[in-house]
Amino acid sequence: MASQKKTRPKRRVKIIIERHSTGYVAQVLGVKGIVLGEGDTHKGALADIKSALKFHIETFGEYGSC
Asked: Is the full-model pTM beyond 0.90?
C-alpha cells in the first residue's frame, strides 16, 4: 500500500504592508515570533514576506516559537 501524505487545512494569516520613504515593509500578524519582509515595491515586499513565512514555518513549525 502506498503511503498517503497527510495534508493540513491551510491556515490564513494577515499580512500588513506599509510604504516608507525607502521602500515597503511587510509583517505577518497571527504568527508567534517575528516575520518581516521588505522590498522596493509592494509586490517585492509581498514576495519577500511569503518567502520569510515559509522559512519560519519550516524552521519553527506552523505555530512558530518564542
From this structure: no
